[in-house]
UniProtKB/TrEMBL annotation:
Gene3D superfamilies, per the entry: SET domain (2.170.270.10)
The protein's name: SET domain-containing protein
Family matches, as SMART domains: SET
The organism's place on the tree of life at top rank: Eukaryota
Amino acid sequence: CKNRNVQHGRKVELQISKTRNRGWGLRCTQNLREGDFIDTYRGEIITDAEAIRREQEAGLGKPSYLYVLDKFGVDNGVAQEDLYVIDGEYLGGPTRFINHSCEPNCRQYTVSYNKYDFRIYEIALFAYRDIPAYEELLFDYMDRDDDDPLTEPEGEHRA
């Protein structure tokens, strides 16, 4: 169960590193198997209006660590301006350094503990395929449907 793996927290060592062509990136210091839980995307939970204000204030040259929590809200009648956003810039964890790729080795999944509020959930990152140690971790910013296959881990992470 993906939720159970997330509830136990991160079990792998992550390393922030400089990449050749993307600025900062994220990698794991041990081998990951397809389906291994990596970590959650952490940050300050802010309103959509505050996210827009921060983006405008920062300007074009500054990196953005915003992740819009819009997976369920729109389908359940929540207006765009009432959605929440995770801002990983100041209170974020190492996953704020994970970069985008159209050929990712990681996938994000939603994990919800509050079935009464569609606007609040966590973003959990899992290995989409076997990933050798020190390979840059990458995910597709376009959230795909959860019906795409991903092998469920059989137990705790094994390096």
